[in-house]
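Researcher: I'm preparing a figure for a lab meeting and need a structural model of a single chain. I don't have an experimental structure, so a prediction will have to do for now. The sequence is pasted below. Please return the structure as tokens so I can convert it later.
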Amino acid sequence: MGKTKTIWRNFVAILVMVLPVKSQLNVGFYSKSCPKAESIVRSTVESYFKADPTIAAGLLRLHFHDCFVQGCDGSVLIMDENAEINAGPNMGLRGFEVVDDAKAQLETLCPGVVSCADILALATRDAIGLSDGPSWSVPTGRKDGKISISFEAEDLPSPFEPIDNHIQKFAEKGLTEEDLVTLVGGHTIGRTDCQLFSYRLQNFTSTGNADPTISPSFLTELRTLCPLDGDPFRGVAMDKDSQLKFDNSFYKNLMEGNGVLESDQRLWSHPSTRDIVKRYGGNLRGLLGLRFNFEFKKAMVKLSSIGVKTGTEGEIRKVCYQFNKQ
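Model: Understood. Here is the structure written out token by token.
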């Protein structure tokens, strides 16, 4: 009974944290104060995407890492030796130049109006759409945070952690197990380094063998890409079938033992997430792809509403990489 009460109190606390914030964000927040805000962000993303389509995955990861620390407030964008950007889990984050470029244009047109946090949320939506993924209406009105501390980003979900840890970390942000599986589906356009999964390919858990959940054919492919004496920083696509297209093939790969990261593959074996993977990656690919797109849109709106600052809680930075001078 005591455990049930604790769970209920935690659930209520999450609702109190998340729901009031959502009500303060509005679709079209800048329709009068800066009518061209969303179109400028979109055109900026299009320009960078045309030059390098992998920037879409970079922006998605950047937005996720922003929202999971201090809320979706642009704190990950701060360039300072003690800021979040220098935390271990934030190694290799990309997309800063897209946000900075859009911000510079908007400061010329509408100085002091559009936040960096909103630019990142909008840019992520646009990048997913350009990758043949879904588009959605992004509630805006976020303020930029005034705090960015590296150690606070050290507890981001890790590919080395058990799924139960991921479930708990997502729950602390008001996100469900379905949200977890859905958002991880963004890895369909993602890349990772050999060093983050090569331990699965040889002497996994000191058994002398590879991780048995990897299919034999995929194991051969991964060992070729990441040999024992290879470059630990070599990039590998997390969706071997469509690495530049946002679709549900990522889940089919998990069902066939073709997940790159251990934490991704464990979604298929964990009892709380297996059925969700199956719903997205089963045989009815076209229909299930539509379902994934629909659920991904909803999950992204929830993600981008975590812990946002509004009103006097934050500021509108003049440049995204540093706080305003007081």
